[in-house]
Design goal:
- The protein is mainly α and 158 residues long.
- It has one domain.
- It is built from 4 helices and 3 strands.
- Helix 1 runs parallel beside helix 3, helix 2 packs antiparallel against helix 3 and helix 3 runs antiparallel to helix 4.
- The longest helix is centred in the first third of the chain and has 26 residues.
- The protein is globular, with a radius of gyration of 17 Å.
Length: 158
């Protein structure tokens, strides 16, 4: 039942990501913006052909390979229960995977990722909903593993 709920959550995250990108493409001209919350963010339509901070421009094959390896690893760990992840950590992994899937759909379909959230209060690259789930999922997963999951770090030698 837990995995069914995770699959539904992944579907919801991907849907939210893709719908937000569709709205931006249909309502904001490329490289222009519309105001969001003053002093916090605006919505800017950008096409990113790279990874984080526009690095690795034009290397979609690399992203596809990394996503495929990550997907196989997630399935292996969840099915074989080879690593002692807590339920919370599994949800974090699902969030990261959903964000990766949202961006992968853009790379396959468009050849670039649609980014739209531009922070006004700090200098930071434009990002999207999928990136939020990837980043927050990774941060929460690492925090949980470091501070709460002692079982994960046990060195079992047989």
């Amino acid at each position: 039942m837990q995995y069914l709920l995770m699959i539904l959550a992944v579907g919801g995250i991907v849907a939210a990501d893709q719908l937000s990108k569709l709205w931006v493409v249909n309502n904001i001209p490329l490289h222009t913006y519309i105001p969001g919350l003053k002093g916090l963010f605006n919505l800017t339509y950008v096409q990113n052909t790279g990874a984080a901070f526009s690095s690795f421009q034009g290397m979609q094959w690399l992203f596809a390979l990394i996503f495929a390896v990550f997907t196989i690893g997630v399935i292996w760990c969840f099915v074989k229960k080879s690593l002692p992840f807590s339920t919370f950590e599994k949800w974090c992994i699902a969030a990261v995977w959903a964000g990766g899937l949202g961006n992968m759909l853009d790379w396959v379909r468009l050849g670039y990722v649609v980014d739209m959230i531009n922070l006004e209060f700090m200098s930071f690259p434009v990002f999207n909903v999928a990136d939020c789930f990837i980043t927050c999922g990774c941060i929460l997963l690492m925090a949980s593993l470091i501070f709460f999951n002692r079982e994960f770090w046990k060195d079992e030698k047989k």
